Amino acid sequence: MSGSQRGMSRSPLLAIYAVLVFAFLYLPIAVLIIYSFNGEGVGGFPPKNFTVRWYQVLLSDGAIWDSVVNSLLVAVGTVAFSLVFGLLAALALDRATFPGKAIFRRLVLLPLILPGIITGLSLLMFAVSVKLQLSLLTVFIGMGTALISVATTELYAGLQKMDRAQEEASLDLGATPWQTFWRVTLPNLKLSLIAAGLLIFTLSMDEIAVTFFLIGRDNTLPLEIWARLRRGITPEINAVSSLIFGVSVILILIWYRIRTSSTGAEAQELLERP
Amino acid sequence: MYTRMYKGLISLPPMFWVAVFLLLPYALMFAHSFWTVRDGIILHEWSTQNYAKLFQNPLYLDVLFRTMRIAGSVTLLSLLLGYPLAYYMSFHAGVRKEILYQLVIVPLWISYLVRGYAWKTILGSDGVLNGFLQHLHLTKEPVSFFLYSPFAVVLMLTHIYTPFVFLPLYASLEHIPRNLVEASHDLGAGSRATFLRVILPLSLPGLLAGATFAFLLTLGDFLAPLLVGGPSSIMIANIVQSLFGTAYDWPLGAAISVCILLLTISLLFLTERLEKRWAFR
Amino acid sequence: MPAISSPSNSGTAGVLLEVREVAKRFGAVEVLKRVSLEIAAGEFLTLLGESGSGKTTLLRLIAGFEQPTSGEIWMDGERLDTLPPYKRRVNTVFQSYALFPHLSVRDNVSYGLEVSGTAKTEIPARVADALRMVKMEEFAAQRPARLSGGQQQRVALARALVNRPKLLLLDEPLSALDANLRKQMQSELKSLQRELGITFLFVTHDQDEAMALSDRIALLKGGALEQVASPREIYAHPATSYTARFIGQTNLLRTEVKNGTARWGSLQWATPHADGNAIFSLRPAAIHWHTGETVPWGAARFRAGIRQQIFSGDSEHLEIDFEGHVLRVRLHTPGLLSGEQEFWFSPLDAVAVRE
Predict the structure, then answer these.
(1) How far is CA B157 from each of CA A267, B70, B85, B119, C24, rounded to the nearest angstrom?
(2) Residue C160 CB neighbour total at 10 angstroms
(3) Residues A115, B264: C-beta atoms closer than 8 Å
């Protein structure tokens, strides 16, 4: 397996190209972080006057932290909602046959590929027609609708990978379907649930397109930043962006740990092959 | 038999939600597209004048085509960046591919806004790039077209969507059994011929999936033009957004949205067909 | 240490492939230990061994998918191991067939011809010939995914042979087939090889298969060659106890030789072997049940108790107990035996083997 790679010519050009692509992906973020410590503010070159002033300003900025709280509220709600409904949808798609299943599958996955603006606007029209006031609740409804698809996809994949015989064994041993679900199915899905939850949380915290049209008086974090951007760019935004970056990286590391803990055993096997 | 009942029931809550919060709103949007607005009030009179307006006024078609050009450029550039990277990682990176995979995923999880904002600070007249060029005395004055131009929009969106394009592509490449590569070599094909005849065709499903994703998402993007685009880079979604905002013509906005929706669905349908043809299972 | 090999008797003169002191190491593991082997043109040579014996590694070295850690490989008087796989006049039939899923059967077979720049006008005829050879003409337009394992295997064979390689490598190609199909494919492969005259290097762990197909067998153990000889030679005169046990069944008698007599328990027989300890390999079929006929002069006769008897069509497999030693015997239909019986064997059938 590894031998075939050894036999093939190493391509140095390709490696250089790969490095360049990585540079392209990371350079803007690196610049962002560096300039969050720049005394002269955003822009210009080279950066001078290292300072943490902008982070201090950030810490005392009440409006930003309010919006963080709002974002967290919506995110947690969205995660809970999406996981539950997404699990039901995934189970239905994986195991049940019912009329309109094909259409249902397409519909559930549609918000994933559809531009957020369409989902947002259609829900706006819906909210107006039922005279629902725009608020964090409407934001929650919008995000939940959009992110169910993410949960469904992830959990469906997890269900497919599961060994069906385990559930059959459980039934054979006398457990009811309900018991089987709690004792066998769910524990098997633990990893998928956590992975999906983390993903939905991150997407929810960052969501703008749908939120844009459903927001009321209380801002979520992205929209608060957006509002500030309209007034002009400040290094404080660099600071908050850098913090968001830091938190995201931590979340990915956790997500990755979870993902690979299940495949650790397989990786071990691959190491021994003459 | 008890299992059949239980199975049927679990589909109900998500079906209900989808019906109320997905189907109904789409239907409402569809209905709105046939209504009109007068003096700031939406009238529920049925007509097709919105659609007529779209095709008669060249402005809308112009913006739509510009949007499609931008989407096409973004998709193409993302592929040019993402494919060699995925190929390198899958076939040449050896044990390091795991870590490299992580590194590609990380930008995906970073906020869209954060990344867009980063480009804004880099490309501006007082931005980092201009400062850098002036510092090296490569330019004397700030270059203005870096920011607030289609160039900036394409650049930013390429940055956003390259990892999106990369993911299904990489999965597709990883899926190719290595003994096929060996067989190709065994039969006399060198690296280049093997790539063109074996690897590329077998990676097409992943390529298609990634490209579709990038194209469709760029098509409906309205934030990038607002962040880094100028008046010459307004995209179709911006028009919709303003129609729902200050320009207040919901029916017209709904009509454009329906068009975007139809465009998306037909593209998805097309790629699904192609994917079925290319899935050599 | 040099392999014990007997010259090949495949008819056509000339050595096609030379493996010279080839060693292969993966990290800390030495998979091949200074192996030297000659393959004659036109012969059917089988690399036989357990998993981990290095047989697949040796095959891959010859194909070009791995590089030797040391040593050289030569083909037709030219250095082979420095060439990449696509420049070698060697083709492989893979264990998992490795057919290109996105190409039809026909396009799979023509692949090698296309990439090497064969004239477009020539290709269809050669492809058709190759498909006819493996009896797959009617499947030419199909995709591999629709074919059964046996059919895929034939296509893989055609794909390799159509290029007229000097050497065909077959990596356990029949291991995924069921027993009947396997036997059928074995006989087809054998006649194909005879017909085409192409040199075949066949890898398997199945000794029956090796004996049925090969002109010569190269038995590998732990990365080194244990013995290289024709099937009849290797069966009748195994060099070591491992060979004796691996190929066919045998009884290993640990004796003490003194003055031309080997002593095993209370049994003894004449032997030209030097004094000292000696191991003799005695095939189960070489032990006879005494029914009163005249026993050859010098035969070793003994009484033993019947422990187990297993019926197997035209022969009976017995386990007998002689002074605490368990011997395996193969007889032809004596009916059910029991208790103690008399047995004998000829000293000529007891082959001295190394440890």
Answers:
(1) 35, 9, 18, 10, 50
(2) 26
(3) yes
Instruction: Round to whole Å and give the CA distance between C199 and C219.
Output: 18
Check CB contact of C83 with chain B, cutoff 8 Å: no
Number of Cβ atoms within 10 Å of the Cβ of C51: 10
Its sign, for the CA torsion B44, B48, B49, B53, is positive
Helix (H) or strand (E) holding B132: helix B128-135
Residue positions counted in chain C:
355
Backbone angles phi, psi at C57, to 5 degrees: -60, -45
- The CA distances from residue C32 to A63, C68, C71, C201, in Å, are 70, 9, 11, 17
What is the C-alpha to C-alpha distance for residues B22 and A130, in angstroms, rounded to an integer?
A: 15
Q: What is the ipTM of this complex?
A: 0.85
Report how many Cβ contacts below 8 Å link chain A to chain C. Answer: 19
Spatial contact of C134 and C153, defined as CB atoms under 8 Å apart? no
Is the minimum CB–CB distance between A227 and chain B shorter than 8 Å? no
Say how many C-beta atoms besides its own lie within 10 A of residue A33's C-beta: 17
The CA distance from C220 to the nearest CA of chain A, in Å, is 15
- The region of weakest confidence among B72-81, B176-185, C306-315 is C306-315
Residue A195 · residue A155 · CB < 8 Å: no
Question: Nearest CA of chain B to the CA of A187: how many Å?
Answer: 19
Residue type, C256: E
Alpha carbons A185 and A162: distance in angstroms, whole number: 8
Please state, for a pLDDT cut of 90, what percent of chain C lies above it.
67
Residues 6+ apart with CB under 8 A from A49: A38, A39, A40
Q: How many CB atoms lie within 10 A of CB A2?
A: 13
- Return the structure tokens found at B281: 């299972």
Pairwise CA distance, residues C31 & C25, whole Å: 6
User: Does B29 score more than 70 pLDDT?
Assistant: yes
Q: For position B1, what pLDDT does the model report?
A: 41
Closest CA to A120 of B257, C287, C201, C120: B257
From the number of C-beta atoms within 10 Å of its C-beta (0-12, 13-18, 19+), residue C241 rates as: middle
**Contact flag A129-B254 (C-beta cutoff 8 Å):** no
CA dihedral B213, B218, B221, B225 (to 10 degrees): 160
State the average pLDDT over residues A61-89.
91
d(CA A233, CA A44): 13
* A151 phi/psi in degrees, rounded to 5: -60, -45
Q: What is the pLDDT of residue A181?
A: 85
Please report, for chain A, how many H helices and E strands are present, in that order. 14, 0
Residue C99's closest chain B neighbor by CA? B180
- The model's pTM is 0.81
Shortest distance between the Cα of C29 and any Cα of chain B, in A, equals: 19
Cβ contact B43:B36 at 8 Å = yes
